[in-house]
Design brief:
- The chain is of the alpha+beta class and about 850 residues long.
- It has five domains: about 230 residues, HUPs (Rossmann fold, 3-Layer(aba) Sandwich); about 190 residues, Valyl/Leucyl/Isoleucyl-tRNA synthetase, editing domain (Isoleucyl-tRNA Synthetase, domain 2, Alpha-Beta Complex); about 60 residues, no CATH class; about 140 residues, Isoleucyl-tRNA Synthetase, Domain 1 (Orthogonal Bundle); about 60 residues, Ubiquitin-like (UB roll) (Roll).
- The chain has 26 helices and 34 strands.
- Strands 10, 11, 12, 13, 14, 15 and 18 form a seven-stranded mixed beta sheet that branches. A four-stranded parallel beta sheet has the order 2-1-26-27, with helices on one face. A four-stranded antiparallel beta sheet has the order 6-5-9-19.
- The protein is globular.
- The structure holds one RNA strand of 87 nucleotides.
RNA sequence: GCCCGGAUGGUGAAAUCGGCAGACACAGCGGACUUAAAAUUCGCAGAGAGCAAUCUCGUGGGGGUUCAAGUCCCCCUCCGGGCACCA
């Protein structure tokens, strides 16, 4: 993923005193991640098939576990560590449950930071990026993440981006990619255009201090709006996605049902089409309001110099407000144009105004103003003395009669000609239909979502595969032939100048042959938004080496949809709406069968430190390398899962990592101490076995359950700690041989299997120590023995009038009468109810007894 | 303004279906081991009162439903996030 305002971590490595967990000669049985982890890493790295998926006909159910790919900034930050620890635990667990797992990783490798680094250090973007990738891949391997590196995807390499170009050509062919001149967001810091989705609060997504400007430019757009309804409706079916993300996307798409109504301009040929969601209030319209940039405003301005000046002023106010993200708070100003428009419903002439709060790029850029029934229109009318006309009244008893009255569910039309008495909601439909029949309007739907602007005036991105030929096609850009792909990004490029696209300064790149007439043509010099790269990368994992197509459809249809997608909520709109769009386009091209890319989405919380998001400027950045050095990768990733449920923000406390390290040391000591007994196995008959085995099977049940959807690994790990505490409590008994070797073997083997998804290096080492066969995280996940897990006795709290009095022990599964009898027989209970009448006894078997007394 | 989350000890948190609030950890305190420290290990630990047994209060605030509410309903406060003169 492109980094969203995340500062890079890198370079400085703290001077750390020799780790306290390092091996000491006198105590060879001590846990030493510094020895164990590199040892197993070497073993795993050498085995290319270790994390590879099986063939499609393996007979196993498939499971596609995916974490969002990182931007190769040069170093993993702690947020990555958490994200990948969640995905890796899940992938390993699914392997152990017998699934055919696809668990890939790649690099979102195009983007501006590479160019900035080039400017700063003089290293070419490609070189900088590739060396960062190498460093981060190494870090990931050091963390012990189980990725199938044979499917690695690097988006800045031609074997990937040529398919961006291929998709672009397909979209151009289908009319989904087009060029238009429009107002676009320009970041002066990035020196490039940004998509609407990349403008956050009026500022650049990369530069939170930089106000985005608006410029009129001709740019390439992808027609995401064609899928607006499907993107919206599809959200209903995405039950495996967080409600928050679905809501954010709903808001972003911003569907609004209403009507277009044409108001003819009096004394002229022009007409003004307004968009309204309340056509039922049209008899109350007392003016028409235009955006300053509306064509009719401009036409009037041409005829009237004084008016032109005023309109320009309104436009300037709007621009200033927009750029400072204060559009919502703009002080309303308007000017009467001196002209009138005719309301087609009642033939009334209403004044035409131009106002600064009317936006040219939403709806039609024109509204009808109904001050009696709209807050904004009311405010504007009050300010300029425009008349109010009530045309809606509630049809229920209410005191809510003040104007503006905006109700519509329980309200009817009044003083509205033939529509008088109609219910508002019904009238909206009928009046829009009436307008259509009579040729002065139509029901319509408006969206907040706009088409995706993908042109970037930058070097380090996918070249757009289009050319311009002045001779044979002066108006229309021409697509290059598919056989010409990839259009390679040139290597030696001067990116130091900031005006215009860097590729435009390379004649060898710009000069192209016209695909139509064969003459000299100009190549498009803008590159694609990096969000194009991340919109479909996960399909490439299914068939990463394919040189004839982006991927083979059969392979994609086997793996898709992604079973579980895991990443940060900061991509809730950007990446996650683009990739849903891309999937629908690919489906319509016949490449895939799925409608949505991911069946389930999990958004993990942020990692914070000292109460704030980590950033270099705050000086609260935690380096994963430091953590590995001090506590090892296993303790670091296990802490990331233990400290908070994965969907919540996590406050990083180094003491906590130390605590996990202590826990692992304890397990290490116990396992090495009893591995001899465990290896011997043998009978399982000692009387003291039962309590230990009961705890074991309760733990297996708990951890297994946590993996089935809830993922509260903090509670999984805590239950494993409880098991280890139970083992410690039985240590003396085990020393004395009072626990049978068979039970010891089962407890330790299962314990290590339960830890395998969370601490893979540690588990591998301990598995070997126990004489376990094969690879630990391909070993069958331990099964719960319900019989062994069942408690013999349960403690039942006894309440009198809802207050806890005592706890009585009864055999598990006791019936109501037995529990009641036990409660009433208790001395404390007797004392408490003495001399009182027991009115009612509530017995919840296995849970509690409550005596209601008077 | 609308929408989505959240608020529980000194701290991170648990309580998954309305049934013992604070599991498991971190930090802290005390004991053992040690010449000493670290490490390890055993124990204490929501707040208040009491020598103690024990009692009272306690899940942001106020009301309600219920034998029983952190959990359900209504109202409110604060924090995080999204959308916003979007007609």
């Amino acid at each position: 993923m492109p980094e969203t305002r995340t500062s890079e971590i890198g370079g400085e490595t703290a001077n750390i005193v020799e780790s306290s967990t390092a091996a000491e000669p006198n105590q060879p049985q001590r846990y030493s991640p510094a020895e164990i982890e590199p040892k197993w890493q070497a073993v795993w790295d050498a085995d290319k098939t270790l994390y590879a998926a099986d063939a499609h006909d393996s007979g196993k159910p498939k499971y596609y576990c995916l974490e969002m790919l990182p931007y190769p900034s040069g170093a993993l930050h702690i947020g990555h560590v958490r994200n990948y620890a969640i995905g890796d635990a899940l992938a390993r667990h699914m392997w152990m449950r017998g699934y055919n797992v696809l668990h890939p990783m790649g690099w979102d490798a195009f983007g501006l930071p590479a160019e900035n680094a080039a400017l700063k250090n003089g290293v070419p973007p490609r070189e900088w990026t590739l060396s960062n990738i190498a460093a981060m891949r190494k870090q990931m391997q050091r963390m012990g993440y189980g990725y199938d590196w044979s499917t690695e995807v690097t988006t800045c390499l031609p074997d990937y981006y040529r398919w961006n170009q291929w998709f672009f050509l397909k979209m151009f062919e289908k009319g989904l990619a087009y060029r238009k001149k429009s107002k676009v967001n320009w970041c002066p810091e990035c020196c490039t255009v940004l998509a609407n989705e990349q403008v956050i609060g009026g500022r650049c997504w990369r530069h939170e201090d930089t106000v985005v400007e608006l410029r009129d430019l001709t740019q390439w757009f992808l027609r995401i709006t064609k899928y607006a309804d499907e993107l919206l409706d599809g959200l209903e079916k995405l039950e495996g996605w967080p409600e928050k993300v679905r809501t954010m996307q709903r808001n972003w798409i911003g569907r609004s049902e209403g009507a277009h109504v044409d108001f003819a301009v009096a004394d002229g040929d022009a007409k003004i089409t307004v968009f309204t969601t309340r056509v039922d209030t049209i008899f109350g319209a007392t003016s028409v309001q235009l955006a300053p940039e509306h064509a009719v405003s401009k036409a009037f301005a041409l005829e009237d110099d004084a008016l032109r000046v005023q309109i320009e002023e309104l436009l300037e106010q709007q621009k200033v407000a927009r750029e400072s993200d204060a559009l919502g708070a703009i002080e309303k100003h308007g000017v009467f144009t001196g002209r009138f428009a005719v309301n087609p419903f009642n033939g009334e002439r209403v004044p035409i105004w131009v106002a600064n709060y009317i936006l040219a790029d939403y709806g039609t850029g024109a509204i009808m103003s109904v001050p009696a029934h709209d807050e904004r229109d009311f405010e504007f009318a009050q300010k300029y003395g425009l008349p109010l006309r009530r045309v809606i009244a509630p049809n229920v008893d209410t005191t809510d009669l003040a104007l503006p009255y905006t109700g519509e569910d329980e309200a009817v039309l009044i003083d509205s000609g033939e529509w008088t008495g109609e219910n508002c909601l019904e009238a909206q439909e009928k009046m829009a239909a009436f307008a259509k029949v009579n040729g002065f309007g139509t029901p319509t739907v408006t969206y907040r979502l706009k088409d995706w602007g993908v042109s970037r005036q930058r070097y380090w991105g996918t070249p757009i595969p289009m050319v311009y030929c002045d001779k044979c096609s002066p108006e229309e850009p021409l697509p290059v032939a598919e056989s010409e792909l990839p259009i390679l990004l040139p290597e030696q490029v001067d990116i130091t100048q900031t005006n215009g696209s860097p590729l435009g300064r390379i004649p060898e790149f710009v000069n192209a042959k016209c695909p139509k007439c064969g003459g000299v043509a100009r190549r498009e010099t803008d590159t694609m938004d990096t969000f194009v790269d991340s919109s479909w990368y996960f399909y490439r994992y299914a068939d990463a080496k394919n040189s004839a197509a982006p991927f083979d459809s059969d392979k994609a249809n086997y793996w898709f949809p992604i079973d579980q997608y895991i990443g940060g909520v900061e991509h809730a709109i950007l990446h996650l709406i683009y990739s849903r769009f891309w999937t629908k386009v690919m489906r319509d091209l016949g490449l895939v069968k799925n409608d949505e890319p991911a069946a389930r989405l999990f958004t993990q919380g942020m990692v914070i430190k000292d109460g704030a998001k980590m950033s270099k400027s705050k000086g609260n950045v935690v380096s994963p390398d430091d953590m590995i050095l001090r506590y090892g990768a296993d303790a670091t990733r296990m802490y990331a899962l233990f400290a908070a449920p994965p969907d919540r923000d996590l406050e990083w406390q180094e003491e906590g990592v130390a605590g996990i390290s202590r826990f692992l040391s304890k397990v290490y000591r116990l396992t090495t101490k009893f591995s001899g007994v465990a290896r011997a196995k043998g009978s399982m008959t000692a009387p003291k076995d039962q309590a230990l085995l009961r705890r074991l099977h309760q733990t297996i049940a708990k951890v297994t359950h946590d993996f089935d959807g809830r993922w509260h690994f903090n509670t999984s790990i805590s239950s494993i700690m409880i098991l280890v505490n139970e083992i410690t409590a039985n240590e003396a008994a085990m020393d004395a041989g009072e626990i049978s070797p068979g039970a010891v073997a089962e407890v330790f083997r299962s314990l290590i299997l339960l830890l395998a998804p969370f601490a893979p290096f540690f588990a591998a080492e301990m598995w070997e120590e126990l004489g376990g066969e094969g690879v630990v995280f391909r070993t069958q996940w331990p099964a719960v023995n319900e019989e062994l897990a069942r408690d013999e006795e349960v403690e039942i709290p006894v309440q009198v009038n809802g207050k806890l009095v005592t706890v009585v022990k009864v055999p598990a599964g006791s019936d109501e009468a037995a529990v009641k009898a036990a409660a009433l027989a208790d001395e404390k209970v007797k004392a408490r109810i003495e001399g009182k009448t027991v009115v009612k006894v509530i017995v919840v078997p296995g849970k509690l007894v409550n005596l209601v007394v008077k």
